[in-house]
What we know:
With about 300 residues, the chain is an all-alpha fold. The chain has 14 helices and no strands.
Amino acid sequence: MLIPAFILLGTRIEGALLRQTMLSLQLLIMLVGLWELASPGGFGSTFRVIDYYVQTRGYDADAFWAGGDLFLSSERPGGRMLLDGLGLHRGSSLFLEPVSLGNWAIVGTIFTAAMWRSLSNGARLFMLVSTAVLLVTCDGRLALSVILLFCLYLPISAYVPDQWSVAYLPLLLLALVGGEALGILAEHQDNLPGRLSVGLDALRSMDLDQLLGIRADRVRFDDAGWADFVQAQSVVIAIGLWLALACSSFGRDPGNRMAKHGIMLFLALCLPISNSLLSIKTAALMWVVYGFCYARGRLTRMEGNAA
């Protein structure tokens, strides 16, 4: 129910309230993230991250190998940090785990593109600078890659009909199959090609009961969001939801089109790797932005017809 509930909320929210909410949350998340980097011990003792995940998510305390009281991926194996020379760990801020903070940075980028014309110059600068700070805080390699792609593609997508976004997911699936056939995907290695290979294998390994969402025992697909979603909801609902989200019309407004293309491309790029983007922590606001831009486009069309 998360997706329709927050889309409906977005259709009713006023633009000023949406901007105020996003800017306030962005500031709070950035400040807490900077506190975490400056005082990881104080942050850990305040939120007791290990205790939270052990008691509520079934994690094993021994899995938190990085040390301290932070999330288990607060360090990367072998020191593979983007800014390893700074001696920082991977921050998580209010999300308590770094991947969700990276997803939030992507959602913030989509919001900034969608609302660019209605943001003041100060708000635009704040969103750009704070998003960069969040990327450094979480050491988000995938988030950085997606945002850099958005910087190149979203200005172009403002001139592309938003319903063309329906092609993103099937084209990505075809690209992964082709990449595997050409030996481009590194089989089950701890890097982006390896994670994509895991996601493709997970989808291919599903039996009929899993595809229909009726299997009694669920398999853990932590690194394959689309397989996890399909076994929870069924392939019928997964395909139907993708079509419903992608085929809705947002009109010709550049901001609305960038929001639609950004959200659908974000889903397509991240679902083979993780289901974390569907968490309410980050997805709620993304669907609010979706609903807001859909309603804004519909209102513009109604006004045009009335004129």
